[in-house]
Amino acid sequence: MVYLDEVLFTKRTFLNRCYTSRNVHTQVNQNEVMQPYKAVIAAVSAEEGMELFQLQDHPATNKNFPVYIRTLSMMLKHKPFALYLD
Hints:
Layout: E1 2-9, H1 11-16, H2 30-33, E2 38-45, E3 49-56, H3 65-75, E4 83-85
Parallel strand pairs: 1-4
Antiparallel strand pairs: 1-2, 2-3
């Protein structure tokens, strides 16, 4: 069984997930906020841990996702595998 997930990091992610202690003002370094869009797609298994990890400048699409699955299949030496996506 291989578990696969994608996470997206954008400027909006940072701004909506900013926390500070009570009565402490939020300080933001504008250089850190103005970073390009990033996406991480990762596949893990109980047997091997991290099977395949990719950092991309765009989300998974119907064009690049099959390429990722073929690469994962090659990494698993073309053995049959079950894929769990959430």
